[in-house]
Specification:
17 strands; 11% helix
Length: 403
C-alpha cells in the first residue's frame, strides 16, 4: 500500500510539473535535452548557442556619432548670435540574404536639412526622430544593380560641392535604382535614377514629386588618380505655386508675398547639375579637387515677370583626409548660388542662413587624434546676391565622436 501511494504521488507530481511547464510556455531546447541525456556537457551546449547568436549578430552592423558644436554668427545689419548644439545619430543595418534593412535615428526638431538640437529651454528633453528607414535589394549575382525604397541615404553620386543642391542631412523618401557597370580596368559607368515623394495632398491630385536621372563615369588612369564626372537632371513636379509642407523654409527662392511664411514657390524647378571630381595623391597627401555647376532650365521669374538668377556653382579643394589616427585635412571652397538656381529648402542650411541667393567663402581644418575622435573648425563668409544687405559670417567649432 505504501509503495502504491508513493507511486501515485510521483505520477501526480510529474503530471503537475509538466502541466505547469506547459502553462508557463516553457520548452526545453534541443541543447538542454542533449545535456539531460548526457550527450553534451553544459559548456558544449553553451558553445552551440553562442555560435547561433554569433551567426545572427554577424548579419547586423551598428554605427553612430555624437557631435558637440559651438556656433557663432556675426550678421550685418542683424544682431549677432551664439549658440551651443549637439547632434546624435544611431544607425543599424540588417542583412537578410540579398536584402538590407537600414534604420537610423537622429536628434533634431524634424527639419529636412538638420539633425542638430540646441541647448535651450531650461534643460528640456530633446527629441529623437526616424532619420532613415529603408529596404535595399542587391543580388549576390547582380552586384551591378541595387533597388531601394523608403527613407534612404541620398541615392545620387555627390561630393562636398553638391551641397549647393543637397544638404548632407537630407534623407530622401521614395524609390531609387542604381546601376554600376565596369567597362574595363579602373573605369565604371553608373546610372542613378530616383522617384522621390516631396508632398502628398489629400485635397487634390497635385502631389509633388522629384524625378532624378543621373549618368556618370569614373576613370582611374593611373595609380592614386581617379576622376569622376556626372550629369544629373532633377525634375520637380507641381512645385510652381505651391509648397512641400516642409518644416523649415530656407531663404533665397522667389516666393509668394501673402501669406507671410507660407513657403509658396512662384516658379518651377527643372535643375541640371554637373559634378566633377579629381582625386589624387601628392606624395602621401590625399588631394581632392571638385566642383558643381547648377542651372534651373525652367526660366524662373519674379512676381513682376522679370527673369531671376537661374544658375550657380561651387568649387574647391580638400587637402589631406581626417579620419584615421593622427590625420588632418584643410579645405577651401567658393560658392555662388542664384535666387532660383535650385530649390532652396533642400540646399545646404549652413551657408549663411541656408538656401540660395548668396555667395561667399568656406574654409575648414580638421584633425583626428584617434579613429573615433575628430575636431573641426569651419568658417563661412557670405553675402546676399540681391539688393538687400544681409552679410553673415558663421563659425562652427565641432568635436565629433564616432562609434
Amino acid at each position: 500500500m505504501k509503495g502504491w501511494f508513493c507511486s501515485v504521488l510521483m505520477i501526480l507530481g510529474v503530471g503537475f510539473s509538466a502541466f505547469g511547464a506547459r502553462a508557463e510556455g516553457e520548452r526545453k531546447t534541443m541543447e538542454d535535452l542533449l545535456v539531460d541525456k548526457g550527450v553534451l556537457t553544459k559548456d558544449e551546449a553553451a558553445a552551440v548557442q553562442g555560435r547561433k547568436f554569433a551567426a545572427w549578430i554577424d548579419r547586423v552592423t551598428f554605427s553612430g556619432d555624437l557631435r558637440l558644436r559651438q556656433e557663432s554668427f556675426w550678421k550685418d545689419p542683424a544682431a549677432d548670435r551664439h549658440r551651443q548644439r549637439f547632434r546624435l545619430r544611431l544607425g543599424s543595418e540588417l542583412k537578410i540574404g540579398d536584402l538590407t534593412v537600414g534604420i537610423r535615428l537622429a536628434s533634431g526638431t524634424g527639419e529636412q536639412t538638420s539633425t542638430n538640437q540646441s541647448f535651450d529651454n531650461l534643460f528640456s528633453q530633446k527629441g529623437i526622430w526616424i532619420d532613415r528607414a529603408f529596404l535595399r535589394w542587391q543580388g549576390s549575382n547582380s552586384k551591378w544593380l541595387a533597388l531601394t525604397g523608403g527613407k534612404m541615404p541620398n541615392p545620387f553620386f555627390t561630393v562636398y560641392s553638391t551641397d549647393a543642391i543637397w544638404d548632407e542631412d537630407v534623407s530622401p523618401e521614395g524609390f531609387a535604382e542604381n546601376f554600376n557597370v565596369a567597362l574595363g580596368t579602373g573605369t565604371v559607368l553608373f546610372v542613378n535614377v530616383a522617384q522621390l515623394i516631396l508632398d502628398e495632398d489629400a485635397g487634390d491630385t497635385n502631389d509633388q514629386w522629384l524625378f532624378g536621372q543621373q549618368v556618370g563615369i569614373s576613370v582611374a588612369p593611373a595609380k592614386d588618380v581617379k576622376t569622376t564626372l556626372a550629369a544629373t537632371y532633377y525634375n520637380f513636379v507641381n512645385a510652381e505655386d505651391g509648397n512641400f509642407g516642409q518644416v523649415t523654409c530656407l531663404s533665397g527662392n522667389t516666393r509668394a508675398t501673402p501669406p507671410v511664411g507660407s513657403c509658396e514657390l512662384l516658379n518651377d524647378y527643372n535643375v541640371l547639375d554637373v559634378t566633377a571630381l579629381l582625386a589624387l595623391k601628392a606624395g602621401p597627401l590625399p588631394v581632392s579637387v571638385m566642383g558643381d555647376y547648377i542651372m534651373n532650365t525652367a526660366d524662373p521669374q519674379d512676381a513682376a515677370g522679370n527673369d531671376t538668377k537661374d544658375n550657380g556653382y561651387q568649387t574647391g579643394i580638400i587637402l589631406g583626409k581626417a579620419g584615421d589616427p593622427e590625420t588632418w585635412e584643410a579645405a577651401y571652397f567658393y560658392k555662388r548660388m542664384g535666387t532660383d538656381a535650385t530649390v532652396a529648402d533642400l540646399a545646404d542650411a549652413d551657408f549663411g542662413d541656408g538656401g540660395t541667393d548668396r555667395k561667399g567663402h568656406i574654409v575648414w581644418i580638421a584633425y583626428s587624434p584617434t579613429k573615433a575622435l575628430m575636431a573641426k573648425l569651419k568658417f563661412f563668409r557670405t553675402e546676399r546676391l540681391s539688393a538687400t544687405r544681409d552679410d553673415i559670417d558663421r563659425l562652427q567649432a565641432d568635436l565629433v565622436v564616432k562609434f
